[in-house]
Amino acid sequence: MNFGRGPSVVLNVGGTRYSFSREVLKDFPLRRVSRLHGCLSEQDVLEVCDDYDRERNEYFFDRHSEAFGFIMLYVRHGHLRFVPHMCELSFYNEMIYWGLEGSHLDYCCQRRLDDRMSETCTYYPAEEPPGEPAGGPEGKGRRPPGAEGGKWLERMRRTFEEPTSSVAAQVLATVSILFVIVSMVVLCASTLPEWRAPENRSMEEQSRYTAESVREPSGIIEAICIGWFTAECIVRFIVSKNKCEFVRRPLNIIDLLAITPYYISVLMTVFTGENSQLQRAGVTLRVLRMMRIFWVIKLARHFIGLQTLGLTLKRCYREMVMLLVFICVAMAIFSALSQLLENGLDLGTKNKDYASIPAACWWVIISMTTVGYGDMCPITVPGRILGGICVVSGIVLLALPITFIYHSFVQCYHELKFRSARYSRSLSAEFLN
């Protein structure tokens, strides 16, 4: 610790005192307490705690003392449970204040917290809402130079990033959703035989952007949609704070993947022209046009359900990798055994569907994840017994990581729900004003 004197420090939490050495605070499991080690001045200390006594080297926190006692039991013994006769949401608020998350709770308490949050649709964020001054109400009177321009940029960013932040953001989100729906309808309709029959063109001609195709209704609609998506992406890039971070965001990458194929297809058509030697590019153009299906993922900007799915996959990638490892190991074992039982033991009753291990892998993966297609099945008694074991093993293996993914999904849903409700409150204030 770079501030204060004495070999030890005292934490006063709601009247209960705890004494620690300076070195213990450096790697303390609670983030708020460990931040005291890097404080250089009394002002830095007061940003972490509520009051400080220089003579006693005592740091005061106006928090629930009994809740902190249970949190200290977690620090010492590694088990965190709810305080009896205390609201789960209040204790969860204390956990977030000290730097803990719902995953630190024991399994039984995690289920209680998930059920309570599902009933109340409440989420306590670990960070302060954006746009609120760091110093609280006292900092409202101070505006640094350029604050008006920064406020305007922040409002523009919220308009394009948060559909519930204002009336303009809701109108913009509605228009964007309509463009996505129209583009998807045109894409699906363009693959119908009835759509192509009157034009009497080949697949290569269908994939090329000629002057005639652009003047067709489908070409005009597609060009308008691309123009809207391009303008939206450019404006969002201009008003973004960090341009590098903007490019690295998954949804922005999806936007680029959905927009770029159109311009690449136009350029390839311009360069290839009518040269028959270059018509092989028609396959590439068709692939690029099909990449417009990524526009569906653009709806994730406006629907909490899709955002929750993406955030859950991002936070549970370890569990997803573990699930894939389980399936791959089981697939390798069962495919080798099924190939041996169906095609390697009895030469008189060979099952040609299991002629190789890769062919048996298809049967294993279908049997473990679904009820099977029925295109191939074992015919020997040992093979059928192995098939039953394979199906049961698939159910068990798929169910093992589901609990972790479920808890992460619930937490992500409440987090995004709270974020949406916070911007909805600002929208209500805008209506009142």
From TrEMBL:
One of its GO terms (biological process) is action potential. This is Voltage-gated potassium channel regulatory subunit KCNG3. The chain crosses the membrane at residues 167-192, 219-239, 251-273, 293-313, 320-341, 353-373, 385-409. GO terms for molecular function: delayed rectifier potassium channel activity; potassium channel regulator activity. It holds the Pfam family Ion_trans. GO terms for cellular component: cytoplasm; voltage-gated potassium channel complex. Belongs to the potassium channel family. G (TC 1.A.1.2) subfamily. Kv6.3/KCNG3 sub-subfamily. It comes from Trogon melanurus (Black-tailed trogon). Residues 124-148 are annotated as: Disordered. CDD domains: BTB_POZ_KCNG3 (cd18422).
